[in-house]
Amino acid sequence: MTKKKQLKKWLSIVPVALMTVTMSGTTMIPSTAQAALSQSFNDVPANHWAYAAVTKLAQAGIVTGYDASYYKGDKTITRYEMAVIVAKAIDKYDTANDTNKQTIDKLSAEFASELNKLGARVAKVEAKTNTWLGGETRFRYMGNDAKAPGMVKLHGSDSMEFRQRIKFNANINDNMSFFARMNATTKAGNMASGDGTAFTTDIFAVTAKNTLGFDSIRAGRFPFDPFTHGLFGKAIGVDGARFDKNIGTTRFTGSVNNIVGNGSALNTGYNADGTKSATGDAQTLTTAQLNFKVNNNVNVMGGYYWSDVSGTSSTNGTGGTMNITTGDSFKNSKGWAVGFDAKLSDKLLLIGDYVSTSLNNVSGTHLSDSPKGWAVELTNATKFPPAFYGAKPLVDYKKVNDFGWSVSYRSVDAGAVPYGINGFDGQAVSYTSGTAYPTYLKGQDNIKGLFVALANTVAKNVVWTIEVQDLKIKDSNLTGGVTDLGKTYLSKIEFFY
């Protein structure tokens, strides 16, 4: 009886051990022992869609060690061997883009039975094919020089911030998925005020594949990511819809989004008695963009946008939507943008964006009605979809000692990018009210500056990041001679689970 128990124990351990060796970074083609173990599984036919799907994931860096030439001709692989590859792809799920996530979902559903039989991440695979939860915990310390007149330095407990996120994922059916995220943020010592005890939902979105002639349609509340590499962007949710369609090596992306909340001073309507109400018309941004794949290492993009968001200013830099003090304003804007991303090597990526805008109904004599803006970044984060940090991570939080860095520079005229969608807002820490030139809200308007970020996975699922920015006013004629906003500092540690 004892020998039988020991035999059963080893039979249960061997598949998991082999899976572990495979996922540790060794070749995806099975060893002799693995091949012997997989003989009880049927072959995957040479014309099976899974081969092309896994090859795409390998090209994207989601799986490594996969040799697409292995199955050519009469060399097929078994469903066991394919399940091993899929398991490794699942392990990289959180770093994949939307298209690759959908591919992993489809593969995990196809080979769920084999993965389950082998004991390889059973709970995780079942979750990926139905519903699962995740979370993030963040602690960060922030500081700023606040050199401009009227600016206030972060002080006391305001320099320490805590954030908790809870993420919900679900596959509704083969063509539809759902993602939502709840968020609570608090400053140190603010528990008594209720800060941090109330969760807000900054993301809830449904994505449908192969719908209405598009490859995918995403609707709901989500980060803004359909236009440029992040010169136009927002990390927390905007409400609207995104449409994607691949045509050969070209991808079309369109979007319609409300980028300024109803509670904003920009979005105030009127009651029947003529008094102002707390809600009003949506401040809408509409975009259309084409992304061309020049080759395996270079992409270029170009698009157009229309914005209903107005531009305002104050006389001391504490209010309005632009970093100007002349009192000038405009009603709405439109413009075009171009960009590129070039993978210079396996560990070096260059990204650039440029925008040219036309402001409508400009009031005042100081503000240009044709502002421009641009940003560039050099980074070693080549394994993620090309986007400015922090629209993308710098490291894989599951890979211990993974090190990432980013150096970027931006130079953006006043009004060049609509308020509420400035991609670098929120990166430069500051008070949001009661101070001049709040870079947290206007860190990309009438600003030029250098941004450096370093990140390291100090333990599995634990990332430490340091950020430093040196920000200047681009056109001091619009600020009464103010030129220097000083440096901002940030150190944060994040836990993923």
Query: Count the strands?
Result: 16
Helix content: 10-25%
The name of the CATH architecture of the largest domain is: Beta Barrel
Task: Give the number of helices.
Answer: 8
Instruction: Give the CATH superfamily of the largest domain.
Output: Porin
Unreliable runs: 1-40, 265-279
CATH overall fold name of the largest domain: Porin
Q: What's the pLDDT, averaged over the residues?
A: 84
* Radius of gyration computed on alpha carbons: 25 Å
Please, how many domains? 2
**Global shape:** globular
Which oligomeric form is depicted?
A: single chain
Sequence of secondary-structure elements: HHHHHHHEEEEEEEEEEEEEHEEE
Largest sheet: 16 strands, antiparallel, barrel
Proportion of residues in extended strands: 35-45%
Distance N to C terminus = 41 Å
Domain SLH: 37-100
InterPro entries: Cell_Envelope_Struct_Comp, SLH_dom
Signal peptide: 1-35
Keywords: Signal
Summarize the structure.
By secondary structure, the protein is α+β, with helices and mostly antiparallel strands.
Describe this structure in words.
- It contains 8 helices and 16 strands.
- Helix 3 packs antiparallel against helix 5 (98-110), helix 4 packs antiparallel against helix 5 and helix 4 (79-91) crosses helix 6.
- Strand 10 (332-345) and strand 11 (348-360) form a beta hairpin.
- The chain is α+β, with helices and mostly antiparallel strands and 497 residues long.
- 17% of the residues lie in helices and 38% in strands.
Jot down its keywords.
globular; 38% strand; disordered N terminus; Porin; 16-stranded antiparallel β-barrel; alpha+beta; 2 domains; 497 residues; 8 helices; single chain
